[in-house]
Design a protein that fits this description.
Elements: E1 12-16, H1 19-22, H2 35-40, H3 58-72, E2 76-80, H4 83-86, H5 96-111, E3 115-121, H6 127-130, H7 138-155, E4 161-166, H8 168-178, H9 189-212, E5 216-221, E6 225-228, H10 233-256, H11 263-267, H12 281-285, E7 291-295, E8 299-304, E9 322-325, H13 341-355, E10 362-366, H14 384-402, E11 407-413, E12 432-434, E13 441-443, H15 445-457
Parallel strand pairs: 1-2, 1-11, 2-3, 3-4, 4-5, 5-7, 6-8, 7-10, 10-11
Antiparallel strand pairs: 8-9, 12-13
Length: 459
């Protein structure tokens, strides 16, 4: 495919990774344990018993990975900082060796002419804080702000773009309600408290970053385009509940300074009289942002369904009377996610229509596909499905820009094949293949396609 979509001058084209998924060195240089160390080492929770102990060994191989980024021609690289590498116990003494690692990485990027973009929390909560309640309790939000201030003091002069949280939906609902992510809890009110305290932590971190004088501050949300299975009243009502749980629980407090209108319909007694909310929280959460990060992969088709748990006292926060429905005749990625590029355009246009001038400029901080790619006889990786996915989604993104959505950047997920959370190493999202036995990196056809697209957009 050579018909590369063209983006406005100054549009940022980058690549993204996350600390626990690539760094390895889990017990080196003073790093403390995270909830993902605990979770992945618990038998039966991660495919094949995989862990992030070594992952892509990026901690030792970062110069090689920065060289791949330089050859790719990206304007920016989005990485995340491991909280337990900086403050091993979540609070208290700061680990200088952890700060030095990220300082070396940032300097390597700047030398290569690549703008660093740092995410402060990509799910690796220090285990010591989880032992004290994790995101269920407000103390964790307060400790997050302290950690943010430490990192910003040391890197804020060289890192222009900062993201407070990555996908708080996953941290709260997959982690504290579904139990499929660390810490593996299955709770109702506890998961809603975690969601709220993540937002409080975001607000406190914004204040800390502003105090440090950094250039750009934002948050990354994995927003879903929720579609009804039919046009029945029941399915349309299910979409409202799905939107509330996936999207509005974040966008309403952050962008509009209010809680979702349908939250009681969605969560019932779990949210009624929520004692984890305090006066002033909405003002804290809704501070102005320089950008909104959006991670997008697929639409979700939902239909009405009864509660899975009939006893309200035992109900988890994701038991919201809807079920996901497969789209017939639509290609799915290796994750089982439908490929519908037009829904990417629709999501962004709807977001702009909903929030108008309250919507800050948008950066697509993740987009990509897991595919069952493997080396050919010559060692090359011909990931044609991923190339098509990227081409079609970047074209859909250009359509959203043409429709008036202020999108300033795009980061492909991911630079490297990596530890894909509960899927272990079974799912490969990278545009660079990683042989986990040898740590050899092999750029795929998608890497070359993306490099050519970036070059075409340089004029």
């Amino acid at each position: 495919m050579s018909d590369y979509p063209g983006f406005p001058p100054g549009f940022v084209l980058g690549a993204a990774t996350a600390s626990y998924q690539i760094e390895g060195a889990a017990q080196e240089d003073g790093r403390g344990p995270s909830i993902w160390d605990t979770y992945s080492h618990t038998p039966g929770l991660v495919a094949n018993g995989d862990t992030g102990d070594v992952a892509c060994d990026h901690y030792h191989r970062y110069p090689e990975d920065v060289a791949l980024l330089r050859d790719l021609g990206v304007h920016s690289y989005r990485f995340s900082i491991a909280w337990p590498r900086i403050v091993p116990d979540g609070s208290g003494p700061v680990n200088r060796k952890g700060l030095d690692f990220y300082s070396r990485l940032v300097d390597e990027l700047l030398t290569a002419g690549i703008e660093p973009a740092a995410t402060l929390y990509h799910w690796d909560l220090p285990q010591a804080l989880e032992d004290r309640g994790g995101w269920r309790v407000r103390e964790t939000a307060e400790r997050f702000a302290e950690y943010t201030a430490v990192v910003a003091e040391h890197l804020g002069d060289r890192v222009p773009r900062w993201i407070t949280l990555n996908e708080p939906w996953c941290s709260s609902f997959l982690g504290y309600s579904v139990g499929r992510h660390a810490p593996g809890a299955k709770e109702g009110r506890g998961a809603l408290a975690a969601a709220h305290h993540l937002l409080v932590g975001h607000g406190l971190a914004v204040k800390a970053l502003r105090a440090a004088g950094v250039r750009e501050v934002g948050i990354t949300l994995n927003l879903d385009r929720n579609l009804p299975a039919t046009d029945s009243a029941a399915d349309l009502a299910a979409v409202v509940r799905a939107d509330t749980q996936h999207n509005l629980v974040w966008t309403e407090p952050i962008l509009a300074g209010r809680y979702p209108a349908a939250e009681e319909e969605t969560w019932g007694e779990l949210i009624t009289g929520a004692d984890f909310r305090q006066d002033g929280d909405l003002e804290l959460i809704s501070q102005p942002l320089d950008f909104l990060g959006v991670n997008y992969y697929r639409p979700i088709v939902v239909g009405d369904a009864p509660h899975r748990e009939s006893d309200p006292a035992r109900r988890v926060a994701t038991d919201n009377r809807y079920q996901e429905v497969r789209l017939p005749g639509v290609r799915e990625t290796a994750m089982g996610w439908p490929v519908v590029p037009d829904s990417f355009t629709d999501l962004l246009v709807a977001l702009k229509q909903q929030y108008g001038d309250a919507l800050p400029p948008v950066h697509i901080t993740e987009n990509g596909s897991a595919e069952d790619d493997a080396p050919a006889a010559d060692g090359a990786v011909h990931d044609t499905d991923r190339v098509a996915y990227l081409h079609d989604h970047l074209t859909a993104l250009k359509s959203a820009i043409d429709a008036g959505v202020d999108v300033r950047g795009y980061y492909v997920w991911s630079l490297l094949d990596n530890f894909e959370w509960a899927y272990g190493y079974d799912k490969r999202f990278g545009i660079v293949r990683v042989d986990y036995d040898t740590q050899e990196r092999t750029p795929k056809d998608s890497y070359r396609w993306y490099r050519e697209m970036i070059a075409a957009n340089r004029g």
